[in-house]
Amino acid sequence: MLKSEARTAYLEKRARITLKQQAIWDDLLLIQVQQLPLPPLHAVFSYAAIERRKEISTDAILSYLEFRNPGMQVAYPVYDAPTSLMKAVWVDDNTLFGVNEFGISEPLEGPVAEPAELDLVFVPLLCFDERGYRVGYGKGVYDRYLKEVRQEALLVGLSYFEPVPQIADTDKFDVPLNYCITPQRIYEF
Question: Where does this protein hold ATP (predicted)?
Fold first, then answer.
């Protein structure tokens, strides 16, 4: 399957998910995350789900990880449209978020988290393949950022759907995941 085909197909599949299905699948994803063999975490980079696109929210997962890792810091992406680059910004309970021009919620201010500080990155995706490659929205923003993250950091995707056999048009700029978690199972790559 080509990335463009996957994008179209999985945006359509997501659009058909009911709120009831989404709630059940979110609970099952949390249960799967609780089975993941994670080291102690000090710094996690997440994302704010785009609800209208039925992206998977990481809120409950982050609450669980914060409970298991007291003092864990969380960062969220801030996208710079003119450069097509992203940075991670540390957040806390007082951080204000705003919606950018693409409808993505992001912190309005905060200290920048260096990629080398991160222990785990939740990587948004539309679908993934059996080798751990993912299809996003097509701008390459995450892949550019992930090349800067330290090699020991875990790259984790969350998906409502099982993998496709292979994304045929991956290239040297694509960064594979370490894990992808679905409501049914954990995939390790």
Answer: 3-7, 134-142
